[in-house]
Amino acid sequence: MTTTHETEPEVSPPSQRGDRIFAGLAKSAGLVILAALAAVFIFLAVEGIPGVNQPAETYAPLSSFLPYVGRLLFGTVFAALIALVIAVPFALGIALFISHYAPRVLAAPVAYVVDLLAAVPSVVFGLWGARALAPQLVSVQAWLGEHLGFIPFFAGPASVTGKTVLTAGVVLAIMILPIITAISREIFAQTPRLHEEAALALGATRWEMIRYAVFPYARSGIVSAVMLGLGRALGETMAVALVLSASPVVTLNMISNTNPATIASNIASSFAEATPAKLSVLIATGLVLFAFTFAVNFAARAVVARSERKFSR
Questions:
Q1: Helix, strand, or coil here: 10?
Q2: Where is the ABC transmembrane type-1 domain (predicted)?
Q3: b/e map of 252-269 (b: 16 or more CB within 10 Å)?
Q4: What are the C-alpha distances in Å from 238 to residues 125, 273, 275?
Q5: Please, what is the end-to-end C-alpha distance for the chain in angstroms?
Q6: 134-154: burial string, b at 16+ Cβ within 10 Å, e else
Q7: Is 260 helix (H, G, I), strand (E, B) or coil?
Q8: Per-residue pLDDT at 3 exceeds 60
């Protein structure tokens, strides 16, 4: 009597199947993002390249595309840098307070309130900045012009409406604050506990422990958080358009009535009444903003990777 041995098919453990499904979903999501970016770039390139060579009156008050987009790019970077200068110290301070100083009963509500700022629409920030913040900053800007007028940033004369690039920078700073704070807070909280305890055991104060144990570990994360905030500030549209009375000029004066315009706000304010030729010019400026933002993020990734390699040695 012969017996036959049937081989049963191997069944993958549920955990392995779940890993493969999750890996497939993650790869698909990454490919979708790349496809979306490529589609946006192709659209901007096809529709915007004709805007580089249009009649001179299309670029009024300028006569060609490069000076036109150059001044808009200057205003975009200038407003974003003002926002970063204001927001980064506050964001890092709040993140440190939540992660290392505040008691747990206070840290959770503060973190929740900060995170809620990210859910506020930009048009609300713009209305608040134009109707509430700008009038309140009139006296502040007048004081800056009177006492610090020898500095080009505050040369004045101060605006009587408060709708200046400084006000736009403050609004942008409040908008990017929750992004930088949330990422920095998570990075600070992930600092190895043994590193912190070792620093304290060697006699370091809490601030010295943060300086020598937390900041070196979190350096790459801080750079990533700042770059994400910069990307939000560079691309912000409605808040800047509502706050800033702008024109395509190049000036470092932050408190006068003559303010540099940003690419995004210029597109928002000019899109509705644009002719086909003007529309192609606006799309071309959007292509420049897209390329510039991509370059900034690429440079940030290089800085983060270099910092990570240095820290891992």
A1: coil
A2: 73-300
A3: ebbbbeebbbbbbbbbbb
A4: 9, 17, 21
A5: 68
A6: beebbeebbebbeeebeeeeb
A7: strand
A8: no
Pairing of strands 246-247, 259-260: parallel
What does the pLDDT average to over 147-156? 84
CA distances from 87 to 78, 97, 233, 261, 303 (A): 14, 15, 11, 21, 20
Q: What is the pLDDT of residues 250-273, one digit of tens each?
A: 888 888 888 888 888 888 888 777
Tokens of 145: 């012009």
188, two tokens: 């600070």
Q: Is 128 exposed, middle or buried (0-12, 13-18, 19+ CB in 10 A)?
A: middle
Instruction: Provide the residue type at 155 as one letter.
Output: A
Which residue is it, tokens 């192609």?
A: 280
Residue with tokens 């990734």: 301
Residue 280's closest CA among 39, 59, 37?
59
DSSP states of 41-74: HHHHHHHHGGGGS--GGGGTTSSSHHHHHHHHHH
Q: In the predicted model, what is the mean pLDDT of the chain?
A: 83
Contact of 165 with 260, CB cutoff 8 Å: yes
Q: Return the number of other C-beta atoms located less than 10 Å from residue 232's C-beta.
A: 19
Nearest to 168 by CA among 106, 284, 246: 246
DSSP string, 139-195: HHHHHHHHHSTTSGGG-SPPPSS--SHHHHHHHHHHHHHHHHHHHHHHHHHTS-HHH
Residue with tokens 């009587």, as numbered in its chain: 160
Instruction: Please report, as a single letter, which amino acid is at residue 270.
Output: S
As given in the structure block, the two tokens for residue 143 are 């004081």
pTM score, whole prediction: 0.83
Q: What is the dihedral of CA 295, 297, 298, 300, to 10 degrees?
A: 120
User: How far apart, in whole angstroms, are the C-alpha atoms of residue 22 and residue 38?
Assistant: 24
CA distance 86 to 156: 20
Paired residues of 247 in beta bridges: 260
